[in-house]
Amino acid sequence: MCGIVGYVGSGEASARALGVVMSGLARLEYRGYDSAGVALVTADRERVAVAKKAGKLVNLAKALAEDPLPDATAAIGHTRWATHGAPTDANAHPHLAAGGRIAIIHNGIIENYAKLRAELTRDGVIFASETDTEVAGHWLAREVDTGLSLTDAMLSTARALEGAFTFLAVDAREPHTVVGARRNSPLVVGLGDGENFLGSDVVAFIEHTRVALELDQDEVVEITPDGVTVFDRTGAVVVREPYEVTWDASAAERGGFATFMDKEIHDQPAAVADTLRGRIDEHGKLQLDGGYIDDRVLNSVDKIVVVACGTASYAGLVARYAIEHWCRIPVEVELAHEFRYRDPVVGVRTLVVAISQSGETMDTIMAVRHAQQQGANVIAIVNVQGSTIAREADAVLYTRAGPEIAVASTKAFLAQITAAFLLGIFLAELRGNKFPDEISALLAELDEIPAKVQRVLDTSQPIRDLAHSMANERTVLFLGRHVGYPVALEGALKLKELAYIHAEGFAAGELKHGPIALVEEGQPVFIILPSPNGRHSLHSKVISNVQEVRARGARTFVIAEEGDTEAADYAEQVFYVPASPVLMAPLLKVVPLQIFALELASAKGFDVDQPRNLAKSVTVE
Ligand code: M6R
């Protein structure tokens, strides 16, 4: 939630410190945009220089243009998704302590902040904000006052705090140092030449260096111009191996598109192709990206539980149909926040699959930990390299979608489904549910998906036009059956989060059990029509559902397969996608719905990359 950047330069004060931090914040703004702020340190001052403003980063940039800050040797910057305290200037980070000598920024929630605040208040501390962060700042200052260095004070402060946090802090008396700490929230180090960086995500510094280093739970890091030192919670130095980020700055740019979301929708053929590339070796074995679960364990699995939130959970719902069909293992899909607190029945024969784009969703992290405590093995399907879920799971399969910056998830969804299919295909072969030629056929079918997604994109003008004509709609319904059901859910979620329109996705068969009462004259209903081909096709059943809503005055918009000769008879408009195997159809049929939401929100003049009230990764429970 909140984005964090830190920078320490080559020793001389310069404008680069502010420049690096502001451009990092621009790239991290997807994480939260309730306020933004920076703190700069210069060698000859007793106080750090701070600027902060409620609202998007542009407000801060304007304030800095009107009232410039001095050149600096080190800087920290923050973009906020509000938890404690309204999104005001006062609650914006950085927060100051020690009379303005120390500045701190924070991502996360400090659970024992009320107790610590009461103790500090008794000691005479006056608070300037309602945030939990300021408590940590004053606590840190109190430790520094005892004669500790900023780094030692951070170690001791981190031990006093409960909850989730990433902190960065600077002290005017240590102008060549930025100190960070992390527990349950991300923090990555960027290694430069005579300068070093810190960020919530590598995008914060990718334009300056691709060499990164990850921190583990409860570690503290000190960066100076010449070095990076990592400490464990006892203060002992730990050695971490740097790694090279596999994509470059251009992947985190809009690349000629008006919005990141549009660009990311167009990245989808590559996201699927890259996720598939080189995954199955000549022995039919799935190439994981890290960790290991023994084949004997995978063979003994009697239940799979997918834990995820939001769009990632809908990817899990799609995967359920495929994995159950291919592997004959029962698959449950559970929202991670519900799973964690209902005492779920999991054990050593349960395989938990955690799906997350960011790998930092706190609800999913807690579900993973809970599952592991019960003895389950966890495979993570994650997009962000080195993220918490990827590191804590027993094995990880990365979706290679590249950075997803728009808050609404698109290419990650397709990549998650693809990776989950790979897992299903691998388990089917391992457990003897499919013969090698059947496995090859499935993989060949998946290989055709990127080109088909490209065709959907190339023929998307009609759905874009429809979206512009529907900017004044107040409610839109989505119906789907079987794998079309999660597509309906995802279509509705996209419309809610981007266009702020009431939208509901229903299982088409459920319609007559209640939701059909919503349908009145002129109500737009999107229907995901299954393929008419195949012995068990549900096509005619869904056509009946279309007729049921049409009979009650609905305007019907159908997503159908090319070659479906009946669809047009029941729809005001049909949007065709290439034919595909039934289980793989969501990878194609969701794309027009993503585009519909994008265009409708744009038509209403909304910011599609940063919808209101949202943040890209939800790092608080
Ligand atoms: O990073 P994650 O995949 O764990 O995030 C899960 C959800 O928060 C995310 O998919 C959310 O629903 C998106 N805003 C949907 O577009």
Give an overview in words.
By secondary structure, this protein is an alpha/beta fold. The protein has 19 helices and 26 strands. An eight-stranded antiparallel β-sheet has the order 3-2-4-1-10-9-11-15, covered by helices on one side. A seven-stranded antiparallel β-sheet has the order 5-6-7-8-12-13-14. It has a six-stranded mixed β-sheet with strand order 16-21-20-19-17-18, with helices on both faces. It is globular. The protein binds 5-amino-5-deoxy-1-O-phosphono-D-mannitol. 5-amino-5-deoxy-1-O-phosphono-D-mannitol binds next to helix 9 and helix 17.
The fraction of residues assigned to DSSP E strands is 15-25%
* N-to-C CA distance: 11 Å
Query: What do we call the CATH topology of the largest domain?
Result: Glutamine Phosphoribosylpyrophosphate, subunit 1, domain 1
Average pLDDT taken over every residue: 94
- Per DSSP E runs of 2 or more residues, the count of β-strands stands at 26
Structural class label:
alpha/beta
What does the radius of gyration come to?
A: 25 Å
Major β-sheet annotation: 8 strands, antiparallel
**Hetero compounds:** 5-amino-5-deoxy-1-O-phosphono-D-mannitol
